[in-house]
Amino acid sequence: MLIKKINSQTKIGQHGPIDAAHITRADYVRWLTESDEAAVERLFEAARSVALAHFGTGIYVRGLIEISAYCRNDCLYCGLRRSNRQAARYRLTEEEILASCRRGYTLGYRTFVLQGGEDPAQSDDWLANLTARIRTAFPDAALTLSVGERSDEAYRWFREAGADRYLLRHETRNEAHYATLHPSDMSAARRRRCLYTLKSLGFQTGAGMMVGSPGQTLDHLLDDLAFLEELDPEMIGIGPFIPAAHTPFSHRSAGSVSLTLRLIALLRLRFPKALIPATTALATLDPMGREKGILAGANVLMPNLSPPGVRGKYGIYDGKCCTGDEAAEAWQALDDRLNRIGYHMVCGRGDYLY
After folding, report:
1. Pairing of strands 111-116, 344-346
2. CB contact set of 11 (below 8 Å; sequence gap of 6+)
């Protein structure tokens, strides 16, 4: 695939050049509502060119380990919410997690992502000890945590124990919208404070939002984009909303793949060096979702490295892809898929390009 060099002024169609470093609110509105599919394809091409200029044709892969399906929170959209009595619960032991890391390391993975609900049984001390054990066992691998809102002290412990990155989606910047998606004991302001704390501690920090979540408007998305510009995260994870059974939003429609792809492209233009995944949610809604995400500017994939017996139990939404090419063991099949669109897997740490 031809790698195109671009200037900060990137032409993407009849609207003329867009300043990739200073995309305005009007630019965002224009491209999120654009009806000309040919123009949208040029937007994707521009974003793809930016990603290629910085990362080449390599796509970073992370081994995802879903460590617990228990959560103390009762978020209205999530299948793991505390009050969902139909959820299939499990929690991995330290030894099971370390075994998953060993299996992934043997396969070639050099980044592990530990993701789970805010499980009281997996305390801050427990997570810090686990982090230290993984760091000792795999000193050349990067470790990402995604275990929700914790205290400033806990985040400091995790960092000192050896965690490199932390993923914590802000979900929505709009306070009123946040309140419709979460119970009253959760706060959008607290979520944002956590993100700023993570940044201050030196984590490569990831934020992001659901696209098409119940009640979301274009103005909400614009507020999200403004917040991301303010936070300046190293990682940005966005994916379409997918309803989960036995939740208040179980009968809502899923979010738009097309809108998600446009947002990925705009985020790539605005954050040229960011780590942006083509999420499992994209692959769940569209069999070619991973490829479409990459061709819109994404540069990260997170195959599932959890023990096979629990992969289907981490039910944050319905129908989540966790087997087949989504499985970490399907290395060759996934690389073949990437090869067909001109890309290849990169098994190194894949750090943010400062």
Report:
1. unpaired
2. 17, 18, 46
Angle formed at CA 62 by CA 56 and CA 68, multiple of 5 degrees: 160
CA distances from 95 to 92, 102, 281 (A): 8, 10, 29
Instruction: Give the CA dihedral 76, 255, 89, 306, nearest 10 degrees.
Output: -140
Residue position matching structure tokens 């956590």: 194
pTM for this prediction:
0.93
Does residue 10 have a pLDDT over 90?
A: no
Task: Indicate if the alpha-carbon torsion angle 196, 197, 198, 199 is positive or negative.
Answer: positive
H or E segment to which residue 221 belongs: helix 218-231
CA–CA separation, 206 and 31 (whole Å)? 24
Looking at residue 19, the DSSP 8-state letter turns out to be E
Looking at residue 353, what is its pLDDT? 80
d(CA 171, CA 174): 9
Percent of the chain having pLDDT more than 90? Answer: 84
**Is residue 249 within 8 Å of 243, Cβ to Cβ?**
yes
- State the amino acid at position 305 in one-letter form: L
Instruction: Convert the pLDDT of each residue in 49-75 to its tens digit.
Output: 999 999 999 999 999 999 999 999 999
